Hints:
The protein is α/β, with parallel strands linked by helices. Helices cover 51% and strands 13% of the residues. It contains 15 helices and ten strands. A six-stranded parallel beta sheet has the order 3-2-1-5-4-6, sandwiched between helices. Strands 7-8 form a two-stranded antiparallel ribbon. Helix 2 (42-55) links the parallel strand 2 (34-37) and strand 3. Helix 8 crosses helix 13 (285-295). The chain is elongated, with a radius of gyration of 26 Å. The two termini are 35 Å apart. 39% of the residues are buried. Bound molecules: S-adenosylmethionine.
Amino acid sequence: xxxxxxxxxxxxxxxxxxxxxxxxxxxxxxxxxxxxxxxxxxxxxxxxxxxxxxxxxxxxxxxxxxxxxxxxxxxxxxxxxxxxxxxxxxxxxxxxxxxxxxxxxxxxxxxxxxxxxxxxxxxxxxxxxxxxxxxxxxxxxxxxxxxxxxxxxxxxxxxxxxxxxxxxxxxxxxxxxxxxxxxxxxxxxxxxxxxxxxxxxxxxxxxxxxxxxxxxxxxxxxxxxxxxxxxxxxxxxxxxxxxxxxxxxxxxxxxxxxxxxxxxxxxxxxxxxxxxxxxxxxxxxxxxxxxxxxxxxxxxxxxxxxxxxxxxxxxxxxxxxxxxxxxxxxxxxxxxxxxxxx
Length: 342
Ligand code: SAM
């Protein structure tokens, strides 16, 4: 898919720090993939990079570029937002049809924009022929370009905002280092740490072959036994889920932890086992991968599916054992290799 880039010209670091930051944040949030800023500004770069690291996406910022060269050499459609241009409504159709196959560079100014920009640009576009702001002009332009749809990327986000009618709700997506910190914080000893790392290593290999979300599998696998810091009973998975919910950890990770026992526990079994009411069957690919990686490890030691199955059968858990066989086959088929061979 063609990319949308923003070129910010006339940035004066001593004066425009806040507004250029807002131009960059609008670019990211409204679906552009990169911003070029003419003056070198390390503080601005760091602010934007920290937003990307917390809220995700692949958005890039580059400051200190030669704007004239960027504009002249750009291969694609050049759009200059200016109050002197043609009304947005009169050109948006043409712009959209070119944007379907060509990259786009959207230019916004700060101080007076040099005449060259008006000449080189393919479109000089006004968002109302009235003076206002580069922030509003850019937001409205991108929103119209993408028909109001959310084109921002939040992959690898550390924080995810859950929309609420009132108040704030944020969920945390911990990376590997955060997970290890959380485990240590809950008092995980060497055995839990070593087992969690071993499950993570195997789960990540399965995830790569199965085309699953590796970041999600990494965090879910590292945290799957966090409940064992409180109990080694059958309720360690639901205890782990409760610990993570209290820490506002993302639901996608909490569910991996909650559903990792064997190849899942049915509602009926959960009631018989006295577990809190809930769903303990792995549903997503990532939930299944962590559950089965755990089934193939005893502590740090790899064991075969048959060894795990024999263990379940010896405890009279025949139905649970056949679920493990089915899950093993499902994932092996998806990976194109028997998981016992990994
Ligand atoms: N004095 C500058 C000039 O001659 O263009 C305008 C400065 S204005 C505060 C900064 C930027 O906001 C402009 O360069 C333009 O990109 C954007 N802008 C302001 N009003 C706009 C409008 N009505 N339509 C599109 N862009 C606008």
